[in-house]
Design brief:
The complex is a heterodimer. Chain A is mostly helical. Chain A is 79% helix and 0% strand. In chain A, helix 4 runs antiparallel to helix 5. The longest helix of chain A has 31 residues. By secondary structure, chain B is mostly helical. Chain B has one domain: Fumarate reductase/succinate dehydrogenase, transmembrane subunit (3 helical TM bundles of succinate and fumarate reductases, Up-down Bundle). Chain B is built from 5 helices and no strands. Chain B starts with 13 loop residues before the first helix and ends with a helix. Classes of the chains: A mainly alpha, B mainly alpha.
Chain lengths: 129, 135
């Protein structure tokens, strides 16, 4: 990559560019995309296996160690992935500065709330409190 | 001012007048399904919280998701999930530098539509099998 002579060698080697975050989002979006494939397959199979079961059975299966860990990983990976994805959509279509700022904040809050609430539910089922 | 010239017939953006090539439609479908899945996580979180809350809350979610409207949403959610997953795999293939010829692009796009519809039908068939038939 060729950057102008105005940038210092340190800035060049860091490769962070004007946004100061470099290719962090690009990489994380692909990393979570790769993780999402097996996790999504596992998630839909878990859901199918829970169909028609009463609460006690569903809670027991969701709280069992393997299922709970898969569900936690699924929630972690999709909430990171969807936050970056929605940020790209917002940056593409929302051009008013204040509205864009508000949308980006709301986007992060939404992803974090969904992630924390879901993780809390899974942990509660798992620890049975 | 009186003899204003007729507006020049300039070309219109191809976005509106040409047939949408399949890869273009799939590109937009990837974004739309992603957006739908984003809000679909509300259902996932609601379902998990209800399971954690107890039998009554779980019964409420189960009744909603089991209703006609609930099943319609879930069917759409299933398709969006499968389509976004296959679209994501297509993008990963492209990220690695493969599949860029016209024929490959067309094939990959067609495969993601046929694949997502097939996977959705298979999953719902499996689901009704688990539940012992539609009811």
């Amino acid at each position: 990559m060729r950057t102008g002579k105005m940038s210092t060698p340190l800035a060049r080697v860091r490769g962070l560019g004007a946004a100061r975050s470099g290719s962090g989002h690009f990489w994380r979006q692909r990393l979570t995309a790769v993780a999402n494939v097996p996790l999504t397959i596992a998630f839909v199979l878990i859901v199918v296996s829970l169909l028609g079961r009463n609460h006690a059975a569903a809670a027991q299966i969701l709280g069992s160690p393997l299922v709970a860990i898969i569900m936690l990983l699924f929630i972690l990976s999709i909430t990171i992935h969807m936050r970056i994805g929605m940020q790209v959509i917002i940056e593409d279509y929302v051009h008013d500065d204040m509205l864009k700022l508000a949308s980006l904040i709301a986007n992060t809050f939404f992803a974090v709330v969904i992630g924390v609430a879901s993780a809390f539910a899974i942990l509660k089922l798992s620890f049975g409190v | 001012m009186a003899d204003t010239k007729a507006p020049v017939e300039r070309p219109i953006s191809p976005f509106w007048i040409y047939r949408w090539p399949l890869p273009m439609a799939m590109s937009i479908a990837h974004r739309i399904t992603g957006g739908a899945l984003y809000f679909g996580t509300l259902l996932v979180a609601w379902w998990l919280l209800a399971a954690a809350a107890g039998p009554n809350a779980y019964a409420t979610v189960a009744a909603f998701l089991g209703s006609f409207f609930g099943r319609l949403i879930l069917f759409g959610y299933t398709w969006a999930l499968m389509h976004h997953m296959l679209g994501g795999i297509r993008h990963l293939i492209w990220d690695l530098g493969y599949g860029f010829t016209a024929k490959e692009r067309e094939w990959l796009s067609l495969a993601s539509v046929i694949g997502s519809v097939s996977l959705t039908l298979i999953l719902w068939g499996l689901g009704y099998l688990v539940m012992g038939g539609p009811h």
